[in-house]
Amino acid sequence: MHTTSRQILYRKLNFKHISWSSLGSVSAIGIIAYLSAITGYAFLIPPFGATCYIVFSIPDSAFAQPRSIIGGHVLAVFVGLLCSFIFGSNWWSQGIAIGAIVAGMHLIRVNHPPAAATTIFLTLQEHNNWNVFYTVLIGSIMIAAVAVVFNKYVIKHKYPHYWW
């Protein structure tokens, strides 16, 4: 029997899964926010919220694997900053950036939907600099590391399914 999206929407809620997903997300974002607070550097960007949802709610997904998380966000920084520097912050720069990041993620096989939001986030900024690369790299590595520890030691779930 084929499962439809409506059936998925109304399936029985698994409160244990919901609780673990929420706790994993709190842990990852909390650690990144704390690191930001004690260092004075902003290691937290809005797309990381969506990353946490994918990583802790559907950890078996290809989108949730460390390669996709880190590679997708790092590629997004390069694309976003490059488009911002070359074309400025305007509507067509943002369009070019999203097209480039979608193609880039497919080509190098680091598909991670929240990374597309990272690209948009960067093209919305007027004055970007390459320091944001470290912000995104460190933040995405931390999310992947928390996901590995959380899944392996807290909920005893096999994660990641592959590294590369």
Quick synopsis:
The protein has 164 residues and is mostly helical. It is 70% helix and 0% strand. It has one domain (15-154).
General description of the model:
The chain is mainly alpha-helical. It has one domain. 70% of the residues lie in helices and 0% in strands. It has 7 helices and no strands. The longest helix is centred in the N-terminal third of the chain and has 25 residues. The protein is globular and about 45 Å long.
What letter string, H or E per element, gives the SSE order? HHHHHHH
What separation lies between the terminal Cα atoms? 33 Å
| Weakly predicted, low-confidence segments | none
SSE class: mainly alpha
Helix content: over 70%
Relative strand content: under 5%
Biggest β-sheet, characterized? none
Number of helical segments?
Answer: 7
Number of strands: 0
Radius of gyration: 17 Å
- What is the approximate shape? globular
* Domain module count: 1
* Average pLDDT over all residues: 92
Oligomerization: single chain
